[in-house]
Amino acid sequence: MPIKASGDAEMEVVDRFDDGVGWIAHPEETMQRASHAVVSDDELWVLDPVDAEGVDELLAEFGEVAGVVTLLDRHKRDCAAIANRHDVPVFVPEWMNGVANALDAPTERFGGQLADFRVDALVDNPLWQEAVLYDGETLVVPEALGTVDYFRASSESLGVHPMLRMIPPRSLREYDAERLLVGHGPGVFEGVNEHIRTAIKGSRSKAPSMYLKSFKQFLGF
Question: Where residue 4 falls among pLDDT bands split at 50, 70, 90?
C-alpha cells in the first residue's frame, strides 16, 4: 500500500459523534491521514482536512462551514481547496509560521480561543509547531499522538509520534477528555485519559520495539 495516496479517494467515515465526524480519505494508505469536522459555538469547523468525493455532503449533515483550521505547521493538506469551495478562510494559530504563506486561500489568525475551543501550543520550536484544541469534552491532537500502526509499539493502542518518542509532550496528561481525535488513524472514545497517560509513560521505554517493528515492516519481514 502507498505511504501517502493521492488522486481520487474513497472516503471512510470514522469518529462520528453528536457534534462531529472524522474521515480518512485514502483508507489504503500507510499514513491514514484523518480529517475532522466539529461543531463548536453552533458553527462547523473543518480541521486539517484531506479532500475526497462526498466530503461536502458529509459536512452538510452538520451545518454550514464557518472555517477550515490547520493545527500543524506542515498540515497544508487540502485546507485551501475546501476553504475556497466553501468561501471561508483557513484559520491558522497566530504563533504558527510558514504554513499560512503556503496556502492558496485567504487566511485568518487566531489566538488562545477558537469558538468554544481552548487553543494550546503543544510543540513550538523551529522544526515543529503544533496546536491542540480542547473544549472540556473533545481533545484534538493533530500529530503528536496517533492510533495508526507506525505510531504504536505492538502492545500499544495509542502511540506518540516516532519523532517525539524521546521527548513526549507530557502536558497532554493534563486534559480530562471524553474523546480524542488524532490526525493519523481513528480516534479514541473510551478510557481516553488512561490511554494518553499510558502512551506518554511508555513513550521512551517502548521506542526501541516500535522502531524495530517499523523497520521490519519497511523491509517486508
Answer: low
